[in-house]
Every structure is written in C-alpha cells, then in structure tokens.
Design a protein that fits this description.
By secondary structure, the protein is of the alpha+beta class. The protein has five helices and four strands. A four-stranded mixed beta sheet has the order 3-2-1-4, sandwiched between helices. A hairpin with a 5-residue loop joins strand 1 and strand 2. The longest helix has 14 residues. The radius of gyration is 26 Å and the shape is elongated. About 15% of the residues are buried. The mean pLDDT is about 80.
C-alpha cells in the first residue's frame, strides 16, 4: 500500500520506539540513561545513544524510572544531564534520509507550528513624525474635536 500525499515517495517511516527496551536493542551498546524529575512527582527516563539520538519515557516517580533503567542494565545519571551526554545530544544531526521522510523537511516529525502570538508577524509601528502628521490631518478635518 502506497503512502498518501505529502508522504508519497518519502520512503517508509522507521518503526518508532515503543519501549525503552526497543531503543536499547536497536541502538546497540553505548546507550546511556538519565533520570530527571518533571513536575511534582513524575520523572522521565531519557536514553541517549553513542551518536546523540535520544528518546524519552515518562514514569510516575524517579524510583520507577531508575528501576526501568536498571532492568535494561543501565546505571542512570540522576537529576541532570552530564556535560558529555548533553553535548552529544545537541550535536546530533539527523540524516538527510530521515529529514526527507517527513512531509515537510523543515517541520520534521512534529508537524506545523501553531500560530502562537509570538510566532505571528508583527505590525510595524508608525514613526513619531508619521503619527504627528496623521494627528494634524485629523484635527484639520475635525476642527471641533
């Protein structure tokens, strides 16, 4: 079965990582784990491979995330990302083939950016000279106001 527009001709998508075990199995040795608290009680387990590709899973507690990492045979970093892991993640560049699989290259797998106020184009404010000229013109047309 062919893919529909705008995905046709982009190649088949890679199977997503549904569980941390899938990530470790497919990415091979050298995967590191980081447990970070998010919110009041929850925690996330972030797995980073040697190239810097990463995925994350959310758990209901830091202990649960730590246990999930231990079950994978990983000794997790806790609380924050070590510099070498952070630099590896930031330096990761997706392959051109991976970028081409998305419908729109610039959007990747995420999709379109929602029109938040800060993403909308800003209207230019008129200069003070233009404002003064417009005010003078208004007073000429409406002398009683």
């Amino acid at each position: 079965m062919g893919r529909t527009w705008p995905f046709e001709g982009k190649g088949e998508p890679e199977e997503p990582f549904h569980r941390p075990k899938d990530f470790v199995r497919r990415q091979g040795p050298g995967v590191e784990a980081v447990c970070v608290r998010i919110g009041l009680h929850d925690a996330q387990l972030v797995l980073v491979d040697r190239a810097g590709r990463w995925e994350r899973w959310v758990y209901t507690s830091v202990d649960e995330a730590r246990q999930a990492a231990s079950e994978l045979g990983l000794n997790p970093h806790e609380g924050s990302f070590p510099d070498e892991v952070r630099l590896r993640m930031n330096g990761y560049v997706r392959s051109p083939e991976d970028l081409d699989r998305g419908a729109y290259r610039e959007q990747g797998k995420v999709g379109p950016v929602l029109p938040y106020r800060e993403n909308r184009p800003r209207r230019l404010q008129p200069s003070p000279e233009t404002q003064d000229a417009e005010a003078e013109e208004f007073r000429k047309r409406h002398p009683g106001l």
